[in-house]
Design brief:
The complex is a heterodimer of chains A (571) and B (83). Chain A is mainly alpha-helical and 571 residues long. Chain A is built from 22 helices and three strands. A two-stranded antiparallel ribbon of chain A has the order 1-2. In chain A, helix 1 packs antiparallel against helix 4 and helix 3 packs parallel to helix 12. The longest helix of chain A has 32 residues. Classes of the chains: A mainly alpha (571), B mainly alpha (83). At the A-B interface, helix 10, helix 15, helix 19 and strand 3 of A face helix 1, helix 2 and strand 1 of B.
Chain lengths: 571, 83
């Protein structure tokens, strides 16, 4: 093996994560904070171009390469690990913390990989680590969800692997670069990437799995898998037309399901699909501005979505309730959590002066300058819908909706703002949401293409305010129709959670019908006869169950010997 | 909570009424701001007066209604998958 340079930063984060459980107390907390800082330093020390080559069979792998796009995603993944780590400092589950950091390392690994094989290895590693993050909540629900999650991702992994092998076989190279979906193997690659992005028809893995994790686990989960998928799509399928339609579907799927949802963390999970839909649409448009928009939006999205899930996590941490029907009126007891959650909600809606406004609007602008009218109108409607389902619905039902004191009265809970480290993490990310909204230039400077975009034109600001404020007006006018009910909404996972079970029951038991019943009763009768027979001879009264006196044995031996003698003399 | 003093100020009917009035004033001002800007319309209809206001309101109403309709078919008790 020939190593030209240091190890990939993602691998360092993974190796460090594996050591975390061996540390205790403050040493572990210090390591949790230093590890992402070290990783961030290493990411920015990687110059442009391929930095590490490893021969593998007849190919040369490139596990470490640097360019603007790689650095942007590796940076936000590491920043997420750092602030998520601060939030999770008092998480007791060692497995969760280790897996979450290793999961982040896998994402950094994908972002800096130069070849398809390395991408695939880190990709599958992420699937395993994230399954452990869900599983480590250690509830019956999280166990089931983690298994379903693992199955969907292993299935996605198989599809991706077929695509990887097909691509390497036909192109003769392991290179990971822009391609077109014009052959069965490139379609397989695209499908494998899209399953992780939460695209249809498998979108339901995300709202099924993420809300089942612990109060801190879902914060980590929200960041890596879908955004790694966005990264690989930007890298490999920019301008692929079908992505516009896939993205637009995801945008509305997320809104509609979130509107119907009662669980606050599932609302946020659906809204991840909605937001990734914006990015996928941008990738489908494929111009420099659209790809910049998708990248910048991914960066901003990781921050405000983590912030939203932190505020939901803080509520879970304090009162262990997730359903909107159980929540409300928390603004008085948890003021800082409410303020941070609301900042996240405004940012996701793209309100002026937040990071959503300076990033997401780039994608719509790209649709407008390319004159893709249906995409622009649908994205505008979707922007209004984001404010409706996440921007107002989440803070309204969790923190307002009812008079203060409701959860105290109903559940005897004593909610307050969470411990210092959790508050600090929320304040840091809330600061980023506003900071990037007021001063987006540092983010624009690290985007993959040069930026020619001015978000704060008066017309743009007025239009966005109109769109959002009138969506808010619609929310309160239609509030009666949005009353939360104790329900879930069926989705594609119904097929593997219910339908196949029903099929199984239908054909294995019921439709055995008369034949099965006759077979069953005959078998039972046979077993019954055998038991009765054994009981007759070996039971308390059974002839073979009697104890034989030693004397009778001696007698029988004597008789046998006598017979032997007689037989001997006679013959 | 029958005593008026016990009701949090934000929950008093008078406050809620004031909030509605303030909200509507803000909506009117936002639309009024259109007189001060010179928008660049890409598709024609997006240059109409107050386009974003009515488009935002109507798309939200449509999405809520569509969700409600879908809910009739797809909503289940939240214990549906519990065995």
């Amino acid at each position: 093996m020939m190593i030209n340079s240091a190890l990939p930063p993602g691998l360092i984060l993974i190796l460090g994560a594996l050591f975390l459980p061996s540390l205790v107390g403050n040493a572990r907390k210090t390591a949790m904070l230093l590890l992402p800082v070290l990783t961030m330093y290493l990411i920015w020390a990687v110059p442009d171009g391929v930095q590490l080559t490893v021969p593998f069979l007849d190919y040369t792998l490139e596990p470490l390469q640097g360019d603007k796009l790689s650095r942007l995603f590796a940076t936000i993944f590491t920043l997420m690990a750092f602030v998520g780590g601060i939030f999770a400092l008092n998480q007791k589950s060692q497995i969760e913390l280790m897996s979450a950091y290793a999961y982040a390392g896998g994402a950094v690994g994908v972002a800096m990989a130069g070849d398809l094989v390395t991408v695939f290895i880190f990709w599958e590693f992420m699937a395993v680590a994230s399954t452990l993050v869900i599983w480590s909540a250690r509830t019956k629900e999280s166990y089931g969800a983690s298994m379903r999650y693992a199955i969907v991702h292993l299935f996605g992994g198989v599809i991706l692997m077929i695509g990887v092998i097909g691509q390497i076989y036909h192109s003769g190279s392991v290179e990971f670069s822009a391609m077109k979906a014009d052959s069965w193997w490139t379609w397989m690659l695209l499908a494998g990437f899209l399953i992780n992005a939460g695209a249809p028809p498998f979108s339901s893995w995300l709202p099924d799995a993420y809300p089942s994790a612990s109060w801190s686990g879902s914060v980590f989960l929200s960041a890596f898998t879908t955004k790694t998928a966005v990264y690989v799509l930007i890298r490999s399928f920019p301008g692929e037309n079908i992505l516009i339609f896939v993205g637009l579907y995801m945008v509305f799927y997320g809104i509609i399901y979130a509107l119907l949802e009662n669980d606050m963390r599932r609302i946020l999970a659906y809204s991840i699909i909605n937001q990734v839909g914006f990015m996928v649409t941008g990738i489908g448009i494929g111009t420099d501005m659209a790809l910049n928009g998708a990248s910048a939006h991914a960066f901003a999205h990781i921050i405000y979505k983590a912030l939203l899930l932190m505020s939901a996590g803080a509520v879970m941490y304090e009162i262990n309730k997730r359903k909107c029907t159980d929540l409300g009126g928390l603004y008085k007891a948890m003021p800082l959590t409410m303020v941070c959650g609301t900042i996240g909600a405004l940012a996701i809606s793209g309100f002026p002066l937040t990071s959503g406004f300076t990033t997401k609007t780039m994608i719509a602008s790209a649709a407008a300058s390319e004159h893709i009218d249906y995409a622009w109108f649908l994205l505008e409607a979707a922007s209004a819908g984001v404010f409706l389902h996440a921007g107002i619905k989440f803070p309204w039902f969790v923190f307002f909706q009812r008079a203060p004191g409701y959860v105290e009265r109903e559940f005897g809970a004593k909610p307050k703002d969470p411990p210092f480290n959790m508050k600090l993490a929320m304040v840091i990310f809330a600061g980023f949401c506003i900071g990037l909204g007021i001063y987006p230039e540092p983010l624009y400077a690290i985007l993959p293409y040069s930026v020619d975009f001015e978000p704060y034109k008066p017309a743009k600001v007025v239009h966005m305010l109109e769109l959002l404020l009138f969506s808010g007006f619609a929310f309160f006018v239609l509030l009666k129709m949005m009353k939360r009910t104790l329900t879930i909404t069926l989705d594609f996972d119904w097929f593997y959670r219910k339908f196949f079970n029903l099929l199984h029951e239908e054909f294995v038991i019921k439709h055995g019908g008369a034949a099965f019943a006759a077979f069953k009763s005959a078998s039972l009768k046979r077993v019954d006869t055998i038991i009765k027979h054994v009981f007759k001879h070996h039971g308390p009264e059974g002839i073979l169950a009697r104890t034989w006196p030693t004397g009778s044995m001696v007698l029988w031996v004597a008789i046998l010997l006598g017979l032997y003698l007689i037989v001997y003399y006679v013959l | 909570m029958s005593d008026k003093q016990d009701i949090h100020w934000l929950c008093r009917p008078a406050t809620i009424k004031k909030l509605w009035i303030i909200g509507i004033i803000i909506l009117v001002i936002t639309v009024g701001l259109e007189f001060t800007i010179h928008p660049h319309a890409y598709f024609g209809v997006d240059g109409w007066f107050g386009f974003n206001a009515w488009f935002g309101f109507l798309s939200c109403a449509a999405m809520v209604l569509f969700a409600k309709l879908l809910g009739i078919f797809l909503k289940r008790e939240d214990t549906y998958y519990d065995d």
